[in-house]
Amino acid sequence: MPSKSYQRIRSDHASEVAEDYVEAIADAISERGVCRAMDLVKHFAVTHATVNNTIARLQRDGLVVTEPYQPIDLTAAGRRLATQSRKRHEVVESFLKAMGVSAATAATDSEGIEHHVSKETLNAMKRVLADGWPSNP
Description:
By secondary structure, the chain is mainly alpha-helical. The chain has helices at 4-32, 37-44, 48-60, 76-98, 103-113, 119-131, and strands spanning 64-65, 73-74. Residues 14-75 form the HTH dtxR-type domain.
């Protein structure tokens, strides 16, 4: 039987693509007013088929709505997930920078960490950002 930590990691991996896509869709809509499949092809450097398959899964899961050859939009659930993911990303990136990690490295590292950080760790990061480093951890 898999350990609890292994099960959590598998669950995190399963939601990672969905979180990345809804964040990218929200960003495209915010920047350009619309998100098209080609925007995601360029953003993720993947094939059109990969984007289409992923969008179909996100649509099945109730996170996006679209029609063939039409823009991609987020549902209310997709917008909530994008907002949660963006906030988690910002906390992790800010925390890494506060530790002295360069902006470029913090941006890259936070992309992976954001999907696997527990609520407990994220809350600890928020406390450090708000209150400073504890004198005696």
